[in-house]
From TrEMBL:
GO terms for cellular component: ATP-binding cassette (ABC) transporter complex, substrate-binding subunit-containing. GO terms for molecular function: maltose binding. One of its GO terms (biological process) is maltose transport. Residues 30-52 are annotated as: Disordered. PROSITE patterns: PROKAR_LIPOPROTEIN. SUPFAM superfamilies: Periplasmic binding protein-like II. Belongs to the bacterial solute-binding protein 1 family. Residues 32-52 have a biased composition (Low complexity). The keyword Transport applies. It comes from the Bacteria. Residues 1-21 form the signal peptide. Pfam families: SBP_bac_1 (PF01547). This is ABC transport system, sugar-binding protein.
Length: 490
C-alpha cells in the first residue's frame, strides 16, 4: 500500500454518512440455513467470463451515501459536475484548491473529494472491461428497502443493489444471485469476514461491503482519569468495564456518567448491544433461524445491561430515539460507549482525547460482533447484466479502492494485503484495531421468517422493560419468546 498522510477532514466528511447509514431499519439477515433458489444463477463451475470480450455494456447501480457523486452515467461529465459543486461549496473551498482535482492514481487527495476519487477509480476500472455505470439513487433505510422490495415484485431492479440490514434477508428469500465460485473463493481467502460473512447463506456468498463497520469500545480519557482510572488501559472483562463505569459515575456526581451501550428498542439498539449477546455465547436466533430471546446466555447479558442502566441520566440508555445517547458522549457527559469506527474520527474532530479497544469479553465469552453501517452490494437474481455486475463488485475490493479507504482513516480496508501491513498498522492504529474486530464471529441482524418487524419489537420492548425495572429478567424474556414464537407460526 502506498499510504499517504491522513487528512482529518476526510473523517469529518464521512462521519455523518456512517452515523446515518447504520440504523435506519431493523430488517436484517443471518447466515444460518437457506432456502435460496439456485435456478438461473451464474455457473459456479467456472469463472464468469470477462465483459471486456463482448460489446459495450451499461449496468444500473444503486448508490450509497459515502461514495455518491450523483445520478446518471458515471463519466467525466458527471464527475466534473461534482467537482464544480465542491469548489462552489463555501465550507469546502477554503481548504480545497483546483489542483486537488487533478486525479492521478496513487496521488494524495483532499477529504472532500473522497467520493469523487472513489467513483473515478470505479469508472476507470469498468472502462477497462468495456462497462459503463449508470448510477441511481433510491435513498436509504426503510425508503430503500421498500423500493427494492417493489422492484423485485415488479421485475424492475438494477444490476447492482445496495443496502444494509435488509440484504441478508433478500438472500434468504432467493432474490439474489450467488457469487461465482471463483469469486467467492477469492473473497474468503483475501477479505475480512465482516465484508461478506453476514451475506453468506447456505454456503454461498450473496453480497459484499467494501467498507463495513463493526463496534468497538471507546472511552473519554479525561473523564476516566478524573475517576482515578488509568486512561490508557483498556478494560479486559465485563467485570472490569462495569467497575470502571461505576467509578466514573460516582466521580461525576451527576455532572457526567460512566455510560456503556445504547439499548433502545430499535435497530440502533440491536446493533450496539447485539455484540454483547454474541460475545456471551447468545444471540438473537437459534441454529434454525428461530427467535432465541430467552436463552440462559441472553439472560446473563441482560443482567449486565441492567447494571449499566444506572450509569446514565434517567431513561437515556433505552431512549426510543438514539440521537440523544450519542450526543451525550459527544458533549462529554458519558465516558464509555460501544459504537462503530466513526466514533474515533468524530472524537478527534470534537477535541475528545479518546481510547479505543475491542469490546471486553464476559467470563467464558468469545470474541464476536455485529456489522454496523455495512453497505452490502449484491446482484439480483433477475438482473439483466449479471457478469458485468459482478465485475463492478470485484472493483470494490481492488487494491485501488481498498488503498483509498485505508488512507481515509474513517473505516478500515477489508483486503488483507492492504490492512495487514506494518505501514498501515503504524499509520492508522485505531482503524487497524477496527480491522481486527472484523474477523471471527461477525454476524448481521437476522430476518425472522414471519412478522419480522413485530418480532423485533417484542424483543426490543422486553429488553427495555427488563433493563429499567427490578423484575424477573427470565420471566420477561420468556414472555417475549412465547409471543415471538406465535408471530412466526412456530
Amino acid at each position: 500500500m502506498k499510504s499517504k498522510k491522513s487528512l482529518l477532514a476526510i473523517s469529518a466528511l464521512m462521519v455523518a454518512v456512517g452515523l446515518s447509514a447504520c440504523t435506519n431499519n431493523g430488517n436484517g439477515g443471518n447466515n444460518a440455513g437457506s432456502n435460496a433458489s439456485e435456478s438461473g444463477s451464474v455457473s459456479s463451475a467456472s469463472p464468469a467470463p470477462s465483459a471486456s470480450a463482448s460489446k459495450p455494456v451499461e449496468i444500473k447501480v444503486l448508490t450509497e451515501g459515502s461514495v455518491n457523486v450523483g445520478t446518471g452515467v458515471l463519466n467525466d461529465s458527471l464527475l466534473e459536475t461534482k467537482k464544480k459543486a465542491l469548489i462552489a461549496d463555501e465550507t469546502v473551498s477554503p481548504r480545497v484548491q483546483a489542483s486537488d482535482f487533478s486525479y492521478v492514481k496513487g496521488q494524495s487527495y483532499k477529504s472532500s473529494l473522497y467520493a469523487y476519487f472513489y467513483q473515478n477509480i470505479i469508472k476507470d476500472k469498468m472502462a477497462e472491461k468495456n462497462i459503463s455505470v449508470n448510477m441511481e439513487d433510491w435513498g436509504w433505510g426503510e425508503t430503500l428497502t421498500q423500493k427494492e422490495t417493489a422492484g423485485f415484485l415488479a421485475g424492475n431492479i438494477p444490476d447492482v443493489i445496495v443496502g444494509e440490514t435488509q440484504m441478508p434477508g433478500f438472500a434468504m428469500q432467493g432474490l439474489l444471485e450467488p457469487f461465482p465460485d471463483d469469486m467467492a473463493e477469492e473473497i474468503r481467502e483475501n477479505i475480512a469476514p465482516a465484508a461478506w460473512k453476514p451475506m453468506e447463506v447456505g454456503g454461498k456468498i450473496y453480497g459484499f461491503a467494501a467498507q463495513p463497520g463493526v463496534s468497538s469500545l471507546f472511552w473519554n480519557k479525561a473523564l476516566v482519569k478524573e475517576a482515578g482510572i488509568d486512561p490508557d488501559k483498556a478494560p479486559e472483562s465485563w467485570d472490569e468495564l462495569l467497575s470502571n463505569i461505576n467509578k466514573v459515575t460516582e466521580a461525576g456526581k451527576g455532572k457526567f456518567y460512566g455510560g456503556g451501550v445504547y439499548a433502545g428498542p430499535n435497530a440502533g439498539g440491536y446493533l450496539r448491544y447485539g455484540p454483547l449477546l454474541v460475545i456471551n455465547n447468545g444471540g438473537f436466533i437459534d441454529a434454525e433461524g428461530n427467535p432465541a430471546f430467552n436463552s440462559d446466555a441472553n439472560i446473563k447479558t441482560v443482567e449486565f445491561l441492567r447494571s449499566l442502566y444506572a450509569n446514565h441520566p434517567a431513561g437515556l440508555m433505552v431512549s426510543p430515539e438514539e440521537g440523544p445517547y450519542f450526543d451525550a458522549f459527544k458533549k462529554q457527559q458519558t465516558a464509555y460507549i460501544i459504537d462503530g469506527p466513526w466514533r474515533a474520527s468524530e472524537s478527534v474532530a470534537l477535541g475528545i482525547d479518546y481510547g479505543m479497544a475491542p469490546i471486553p469479553l464476559s467470563e467464558g465469552g468469545q470474541a464476536g460482533n455485529i456489522t454496523i453501517g455495512a453497505a452490502f452490494n449484491a446482484v439480483p437474481k433477475n438482473a439483466k447484466n449479471k457478469e458485468a455486475a459482478f465485475e463492478y463488485i470485484r472493483a470494490l475490493y481492488s487494491d485501488e479502492i481498498q488503498n483509498l479507504i485505508a488512507d481515509g482513516d474513517l473505516r478500515s480496508p477489508v483486503k488483507k494485503s492492504v490492512a495487514e501491513t506494518a505501514e498501515y498498522q503504524a499509520a492508522h492504529p485505531a482503524m487497524y484495531l477496527h480491522y481486527q474486530a472484523m474477523s471471527g464471529n461477525v454476524q448481521g441482524l437476522p430476518t425472522f421468517k414471519n412478522n419480522d418487524s413485530k418480532v423485533w419489537q417484542l424483543f426490543g420492548d422486553a429488553i427495555t422493560k427488563a433493563v429499567m425495572s427490578n423484575g424477573d429478567i427470565k420471566a420477561t424474556l420468556d414472555d417475549a419468546q412465547e409471543r415471538a414464537d406465535k408471530e412466526i407460526g412456530k
